[in-house]
Amino acid sequence: MQLHKIIITLLAAVLLLNSCDDQVMEWKTPEGHNPVTASEIPLNLAEKIANYDFIKAYVPSGMIVGIGAGADLYINDPKYKEVIDKNFQLFTPGNAMKHSSVVRNNGTLDFTTIDALFNTLPADMKILGHNLLWHTQQRQAYLKSLIAPEVVIVTDPGDKLENIILNSDFEAGNTSGWGAWSSAGASQKIAGPGKGYNSSYAMLLNNPKEGANYSAQAYYTLPATTWEEGETYIVSFYVYSEEGNPGFQIQLQNRTSYSGGGYTAQSVPAKQWYYFEAEIAMTAALVNLPISHITIDFGAGAGDYYIDDFKFGKKKTGPVNHVPNGSFEKGLEGWNANNPGAGIEAVSLPDAPAGSQAVKMIAGSGASKAWDLQMASPEIPAFPGEKVRLSFFVKADQTGKGRISFSGLTNGYPWMNWTGSQSGWTEAFEVGTAWQQISVVLQDFNTDFAEGVAVWKCNFDFGYLPDVTYYIDDVTVTIEEPEAPAPAAASTMGTRAGGITYVYKTEIEKKAALLGAMEAWIKGIVQHSGDRIYGWDVINEPIADNNQWRGIGGNFMNEDSHPVENEGLELNWADDHFYWGYYIGKEYAVKAFEYARKYAPQGTVLFVNDYNLESNPSKLDALIDFVAYIEQNGQTVDGIGTQMHVSADTTAAFNTKVDNMFKKMAATGKIVRVTELDVRLGTASPSAGQLEMQAKTYRQIAESYIKHVPQAQRSGITIWTLTDHPREHEYWLPDESPNLFDKDFNRKHAYKGFCDGLAGRDISEDFTGDDYVNVYTEE
Fold first, then answer.
1. Is the pLDDT higher at 159 or at 711?
2. For the whole model, what pTM was predicted?
3. Is residue 368 classed exposed, middle or buried when 0-12, 13-18 and 19+ CB atoms within 10 A define those classes?
4. pLDDT at residue 498 above 60?
5. Ordered structural domains, the chain, with CATH
6. Which of 279, 321, 363, 443 has its CA 20 to 30 A from that of 204?
7. What is the pLDDT of residues 547-582, one digit of tens each?
């Protein structure tokens, strides 16, 4: 047996041998009695606790006693790990395996912490995965993006960004969507006519008092949209100030929590219109704020500020050009002069449409046929089943004529409407002295990729007319995106550039998207964890306190309410709350067990888990009905978990409630587990009497579990958190002392009570006075 050493003063022992009093006490054996031996001297409580073995030494056969604890603490604190490894047989990560801890905003899974935990745990330490589905700690930003309406943004083709500001130019004569604030009374209003930047109207901001840049703010309520992590966003506008401002700042903000990010500041000069433009990287931190407003911080300078043409949105990225060196910035690299005529070369041009170079092609004096001057492109990949757009710019020193022919297409010499304004299809097009763009979708003109061809080429044929010099630049081949038909279920909001359209998903589409995400999540984490996992809490806390299915029909936590779709989607649920059943219905529970069973190794125990089952028999009944529904629909639930976050209570009434709960759970025939046991005392500084009551409560729960749950149905008991240290109770039971160990890892009276409950007797009755040496001596 390994023993827990403690240090106690030897004063008591000294007093047995000496006394400062002149009358020295003499110890004698009473007449008629045998001598008193050391073994007969009873141990005090601390001595008894110190003589107990580690907890797992007292676990009945077939049971598993575990600990629920933070993965980071276990990985990084050697003492924490040591105490857990010596005492427990199973580890339940408190948060590391939950949806929001693993799923990123784009739906990918991050197993960094889980892998570190698995590598740190002893090979024989079982793991209970906690949990697959819950209504909190779900990656809400990702799940919302799956069911939110598609945001179709129509913008000015000349813009660098997909502008989502609905009142960018203020030309409607109002500042709709904007507000302003400062402690000194900053304001915003419309100004005009004649006050805008080359326009009639602008927004006028006034700051009466100079201070920190954030001391005066104007803020715009952004339309509901899905922020794309990793993308670049642009903010741009014009600002005029008589006095200037050295710290004119933009930030993205959540004006509920007043947290912000994406800060970008510039110095605005005085007495001129200044163009402010900045790029903002959309980080995970910004997405998770979540962003509700874009805010102008103008408190660093007092006075008036005129704002116009304010735009914000994702930076545009053009379609991929599949023509290598289509801008000729690398000269003629990759291009071939099949027939050079009077010359083909790359030259510098100040007005080149793309970059600084273009190709110069000169038709010879005897040119008369198209191929008398011909340049062939590099090989271009084929895209069977797709449409592609060929585009380029061309001009000449006089009126000319040209065409494009092809190799690798079904029709090498198609006639086309080259300019888009022709009355019909022609073999060739005229070329003028100004740059013109030729842009055609090849498949619209009786040609396509030849079967089995991986690459193709286009030939620039300009030999029709002699002595003409041609310039060609910016040759692109892009995949043509099909035009989406205008959906019936769409809501459009007007903007300066045309509008924002919300394409709402149907209930069937939302359900399908969430079921797909559920399966991907469960498959990913279950397969990654593999056979290290003893069991999974597949669904955590599915029954609300009103004994109804949580999330179904709007059965939410107090702070949550029904989602609203109006110019986007507002879930109206607290951060990282997500109710799968709200959109999927009761089928969500069946599917969760279907996916868990499908991907988990054979023999993995699948649980449902809930709280207050000992104090609310009707809730337990509802949970049992929940299990029955799942099984009536084709899936099997292996076990039922009861959390048991309880207060210290030694009354007969409490004991009866606990007994009845275990009896009812056992009657289901399911495996039964206590999943999160802790015993509150209502204080972080308990008295000896409170500690004794806590010990008795732990003992009674363990004894009741073993008495009323048949051996074949016992999974075991998990203690929730290891010690009373405040770092373990920052969020869960703060200012409390609910655990078996105090903040310094010392065993509490509760340690003895729990071990006695597991053993079914007072283990300390096996100890004798001789065992005190195990406490005071070192090995």
1. 711
2. 0.69
3. exposed
4. no
5. 50-141+511-776 (3.20.20.80), 152-315 (2.60.120.260), 336-479 (2.60.120.260)
6. 279
7. 999 999 889 999 999 999 987 888 999 989 999 999
